[in-house]
Specification:
The protein has about 400 residues and is α/β, with parallel strands linked by helices. Helix content is about 40%, strand content about 20%. The structure holds zinc ion.
C-alpha cells in the first residue's frame, strides 16, 4: 500500500475503490454505467478505469448492447490478478484455502492440531500456507496476502490478546507469520471472519443487519450493522458466549456464571456426563445419524439453549438474519427444531417479523473463506468490496 500524502491522493484512492467495488458488483458494465452508478463524472471514471486496467485489476471485453451510436466496451473485474490464502485455527484442526480475488476456492488443505503452543501452531500453519501458495496459478500479483481466523480476541495490530482455548496471551501472530512467509497477513477473530464469509459469499448476501454465531468449542459472534462489521470501541465486541443465560448457573473460566457457551457449545457435552459416549461433535453426529437416543436428546437440549441466547441477541440487535456456523452446525438436523421453537415462542413479536434464523451456507468453511476475503480486501483498498459467490 502506498502512503497517502495529501487530500487529493486520498480522494483518488477512495474514488478508485468505489469504481473497483462497482465493477466487482455489477460487471460486466460500461464506463457510462459506472459513472451513472457512482455519480462520478465520465472523465474521472475513464482515467481511473485506465489506471485499474494498467494495474491488471480490470479488463475489457467485447462491445455490449448499445442504445444507439458506438457500442461500449464492457468492464470486468480480473479476479485472477492475484490469490489469497485463508486459514482457520480450531482446537483440534487447522483448515486452509487458496482463493482467487473473487473468493473462488482453488485448493484446500487441512491438518490435525495436537499441540497448542505457539511454535507448534505456527509451524503447522507455515507448512499449510506454503503448500497452498505454490499451487497458485501464475498471476500479476501472485499471493496478495494471508488471512487467519483465530478463536480469541485480536487487536488491530494482529496480536492475539487472549485465546483461552489455545492458552495464548499476547501472541504477535501477524508479525510472526509475516516474518516467515513474506506477504501481508491479516488476523481476525474467527467469528468475525466467519461473519464476513457468510456476508460476502454465503447466507448473508443481500443482508445489512446480520448476526453470525459461531458455535464450537465456545461461542463467538460476528455482528454486522449496516453492512459493516461492528467491532466495538477496542475491537472486542461479539463475546456473546459469555453472556449469562442462567443467573446463578455454572461457574465459567471467564469469571462470570451461567455463560451461554457452557450450555450451547461443545462445552455442554460435559452436562450430559457419562451418558454421552463421546466429546467429539463429529462422533456424536454420526451416532445421532444411527439413531442414538442420548446424542439426539443432547443436541435437542443444546438447540434449546442456542434458541435462548439467540432470543436475547435478536431482541437487542433486531437483525434481518441470524446465521449459525462453526463445528456444531454439522448437528443442524437435531438442533434446528428446538432452537426455532424457542426463538418463535420467546422473541418479541415485532423483532420476529421477517427475521430468519439459518445455518451457514458455506458450512465449515465460513471462517477460512472470510479470512481469505480479509486478506483480499486489505490488498484491494480502503473501501470494502462485495463480491458474488462462486464456490467450486
Ligand atoms: Zn464465561
Amino acid at each position: 500500500m502506498t502512503n497517502i500524502t495529501g487530500d487529493q491522493a486520498l480522494v483518488k484512492k477512495i474514488n478508485m475503490s468505489i469504481i473497483l467495488n462497482t465493477i466487482i458488483r455489477f460487471a460486466p458494465l460500461s464506463r457510462a454505467k459506472v459513472s451513472e452508478l457512482t455519480g462520478l463524472n465520465k472523465a474521472t471514471v475513464s482515467n481511473l478505469v485506465l489506471e485499474l486496467c494498467d494495474n491488471h485489476l480490470v479488463q475489457e471485453i467485447g462491445p455490449g448492447e448499445s442504445s444507439g451510436g458506438r457500442k461500449p466496451r464492457m468492464l470486468l473485474f480480473n479476479g485472477k490478478a492475484g490469490y489469497a490464502v485463508g486459514v482457520e485455527i480450531r482446537l483440534a484442526q487447522m483448515m486452509a484455502v487458496l482463493t482467487d480475488l473473487e473468493g473462488n476456492i482453488i485448493a484446500e488443505n487441512e491438518s490435525s492440531l495436537e499441540q497448542h503452543d505457539v511454535s507448534s501452531v505456527l509451524n503447522t500453519m507455515i507448512l499449510l500456507v506454503k503448500d497452498l501458495m505454490v499451487l497458485a496459478p501464475s498471476s500479476h500479483y501472485g499471493i496478495v496476502g494471508v488471512g487467519v481466523g483465530v478463536p480469541g480476541m485480536v487487536d488491530s495490530d494482529g496480536i492475539v490478546l487472549f485465546a483461552p482455548n489455545l492458552g495464548w496471551e499476547g501472541v504477535p501472530l501477524r508479525q510472526l507469520l509475516e516474518d516467515e512467509i513474506g506477504v501481508p497477513v491479516t488476523i481476525d477473530n474467527e467469528a468475525n471472519a466467519g461473519a464476513q464469509g457468510e456476508l460476502r459469499f454465503g447466507a448473508g448476501r443481500d443482508t445489512q443487519h446480520l448476526l453470525y454465531i459461531s458455535a464450537g468449542s465456545g461461542i463467538g459472534s460476528g455482528i454486522i450493522i449496516n453492512g459493516e462489521l461492528y467491532t466495538g470501541a477496542r475491537g472486542y465486541a461479539g463475546e456473546t458466549g459469555h453472556m449469562s443465560i442462567e443467573a446463578d448457573g455454572k461457574a465459567c473460566t471467564c469469571g462470570n456464571r451461567g455463560c451461554w457457551e457452557l450450555y450451547a457449545s461443545e462445552k455442554a457435552y460435559d452436562l450430559a456426563g457419562a451418558r454421552l459416549p463421546s466429546r467429539l461433535t463429529s462422533e456424536l453426529v454420526s451416532l445421532a445419524e444411527q439413531g442414538h437416543a442420548e446424542s439426539i436428546l443432547h443436541f435437542a437440549e443444546i438447540g434449546r439453549f442456542l434458541g435462548i441466547g439467540i432470543t436475547n441477541l435478536v431482541n437487542s440487535f433486531n437483525p434481518q438474519s441470524v446465521v449459525i456456523g462453526g463445528p456444531l452446525s454439522d448437528a443442524r438436523d437435531w438442533l434446528q427444531k428446538p432452537m426455532q421453537e424457542v426463538v418463535s415462542q420467546r422473541t418479541l413479536p415485532y423483532h420476529r417479523e421477517r427475521m430468519e434464523v439459518r445455518f451457514a451456507e458455506l458450512g465449515s468453511r465460513s471462517t477460512v473463506i472470510g479470512a481469505a476475503y480479509s486478506a483480499t480486501s486489505h490488498f484491494l483498498g480502503p473501501v470494502r468490496v462485495s463480491m458474488p459467490v462462486k464456490l467450486t
